TrEMBL record:
It catalyses: a dipeptide(out) + ATP + H2O = a dipeptide(in) + ADP + phosphate + H(+). CDD domains: ABC_NikE_OppD_transporters. It comes from Marinobacter xestospongiae. This is ABC-type dipeptide transporter. Residues 6-254 form the ABC transporter domain.
Length: 332
């Protein structure tokens, strides 16, 4: 049984004029110690999927259907009191901006001790010792000094290390990292991602990494989900998808990487933009931007087809697979 198993998750936002569907029956799983990447443009639904797991979606958002099974228990059906035992304890989350996560008027040590005391019966002295150990794990210089400092006294990279240390405080089984290096410069980003990967491998913690950076996903994750307009359109082993993307959208994302272009040439970009929730086209949501779109794509959403170890929701891929199978049968 998977550690986390999301089945047909449907998330909506109640607004005037009817509900807007942010996630459309998405399904995926996460095993213990596995590293999973969620990729896609802004507005694809990556962060909504992450927040849904811990039921952190603010109103008017709500989970309209589906299951979020953590060790067989449905998180979507739990009360706030039951969820408090899991949030930050067994499933931890690293948010995009550390200054939005850390309390500016409390010292780092106070915040870490409070987090431990919220979930464990523990003395302040023992909690402080654990906090110090976790700061050492994330390789913060002079960790004993940092415990008595305020967030504004630390650099962006150090604040992000503190957030990772807080996520590790209670030895969680899953860490959800929502674009954890967005506000950092490139060299610090690499250090933080290498640290996160090393800690997950050492502690056998499952990682769900939400990002739009395919370079990071290819280096850190074992499996990946490609999201578009609230749907998972391709999922499978990261290496297979990066080396041989099947869906036209995934192909476009990879072709848009700077290293894929010729020196001096204009960078490739996918024409158009992600549709808003109020204007999602019928059929495959990518059809207005897809060079292979047909009338079928514009009228109905394709089912998943298997291409190697990858699941793809695309009529064009389905046709290619059928043609290949026909040729193989003829050769026999």
């Amino acid at each position: 049984m998977a550690l986390l198993d999301v089945k047909d998750l449907d998330v909506r936002f109640a607004v005037r004029g009817g509900d807007l569907q942010a996630l459309r029956k998405i399904s995926f799983s996460l095993d213990k110690g596995e590293r999973l990447g969620l990729v896609g443009e802004s507005g694809a639904g990556k962060s909504v999927a992450a927040f849904s797991i811990l039921n952190l979606i603010a109103k008017p958002g709500y989970i309209a259907g589906g299951q979020i099974l953590f060790e067989g228990q449905d998180l979507a059906a739990m009360s706030d009191k039951q969820l408090r035992k899991i949030r930050g304890n067994r499933i931890a989350m690293i948010f995009q901006d550390p200054m939005m996560t850390l309390n500016p008027v409390l010292t780092i040590g106070t915040q870490m001790v409070e987090a431990l005391k919220a979930h464990r019966r523990i003395s302040t002295r023992d909690a402080r010792a654990i906090a110090l150990k976790k700061l050492q794990m994330v390789q913060i210089p002079s960790p004993d000094k940092r415990l008595d400092q305020y967030p504004h006294e630390l650099s962006g990279g150090m604040r992000q290390r503190v957030i990772i240390a807080i996520a590790l405080l209670l030895d969680p089984e899953i860490i959800i990292a929502d674009e954890p290096t967005t506000a950092l410069d490139v060299t610090i980003q690499a250090e933080i991602m290498a640290l996160l990967l090393e800690l997950c491998e050492q502690e056998n913690v499952a990682l769900m990494l939400i990002t739009h950076d395919l370079g990071v996903v290819s280096q850190v994750t074992q499996r990946m989900l490609v999201m578009y307009s609230g749907r998972i359109i391709e999922q499978g082993p990261t290496r297979e998808i990066i080396n041989d993307p099947q869906h036209p959208y995934t192909q476009g994302l990879i072709n848009a990487l700077p290293q894929m272009g010729e020196p001096g040439a204009r960078l490739y970009q996918i024409p158009g933009s992600m549709p808003s929730l109020s204007r999602v086209p019928s059929g495959c949501p990518f059809n207005p931007r897809c060079p292979f779109a047909t009338d079928q794509c514009r009228t109905s959403m394709p089912n998943y087809v298997h291409s190697g170890n990858v699941d793809v929701a695309c009529y064009e891929v389905a046709k290619l697979i059928e043609q290949e199978q026909s040729l193989q049968e003829e050769d026999r």
